[in-house]
Write a structure and sequence with these properties.
This protein is α+β, with helices and mostly antiparallel strands. It is built from four helices and seven strands. Helices cover 33% and strands 27% of the residues.
C-alpha cells in the first residue's frame, strides 16, 4: 500500500466517512448524502506518481436525446470552475466531476484530500438540479432551452454551507 493510499484511508477514518476498499487496487468508494442527491464517490491513488483522483457521479443518467444540451451545460459550468471539471460519458449518459492532485513524495496532506472530496461532492450536488431540469425538458423543446438562463436560476442551488459544518455526510 502506498503512503498516499494510506493517507486517503486515514482521511476517511478520522472523519467518520463510510467507505469500501476495492480489493487489489488503491481505490476507495463511498456514498455521501448531499442536499439534492446521494453522491457516489471513487478515490483512486497512483502511489508511485503521488497522484490521487477523486471522481463523483450524478445520481442519474442523461438521455441520449439530451447529450448535446447537457454537454453545453457542463462546458459552461467548467468555464467557471477553479478546480476540477465535469465530464459526460457519451455512451452511457453518466455525468462525473473529476478532480486530481499530485502530492510530493511521502507528503500527502489529509486536509487537501478531504477538501478534494468535499469539492467533488459539493459540485455534483450543485449541478444535480440543473441537470434534472434539463433532463425533464421534452426532447422536442430542447432548442428552446436557454442554458445560460437555466444556470442563473439561484433557487436551484443548494444552501450555502454552514461554516461550522464538517463537510459532506457519509452515506451507506
Amino acid at each position: 500500500m502506498s503512503a498516499l493510499h494510506a493517507a486517503v484511508l486515514n482521511t476517511f477514518k478520522t472523519r467518520g466517512w463510510t467507505y469500501r476498499k476495492v480489493e487489489g487496487q488503491e481505490v476507495v468508494e463511498s456514498g455521501f448524502e448531499a442536499h439534492h442527491a446521494k453522491v457516489m464517490l471513487h478515490v483512486q491513488c497512483f502511489g508511485e506518481s503521488g497522484i490521487m483522483s477523486v471522481v463523483a457521479g450524478a445520481s442519474f443518467a442523461v438521455p441520449h436525446t439530451h447529450h448535446a444540451a447537457a454537454s453545453e451545460l457542463l462546458m459552461r459550468v467548467n468555464k467557471t470552475l477553479n478546480v476540477g471539471n465535469f465530464e459526460l460519458d457519451w455512451d452511457h449518459g453518466q455525468v462525473f466531476f473529476r478532480v486530481t492532485n499530485v502530492f510530493p513524495r511521502h507528503r500527502a496532506d489529509e486536509q487537501i484530500i478531504a477538501a478534494l472530496v468535499h469539492a467533488a461532492v459539493a459540485e455534483v450536488d450543485r449541478i444535480t438540479p440543473f441537470l434534472g431540469e434539463l433532463c425533464r425538458t421534452p426532447a422536442g423543446e430542447l432548442l428552446l432551452l436557454n442554458i445560460p438562463e437555466l444556470l442563473r436560476r439561484e433557487e436551484l442551488l443548494p444552501p450555502a454551507p454552514d461554516p461550522g459544518a464538517g463537510g459532506p455526510e457519509p452515506g451507506t
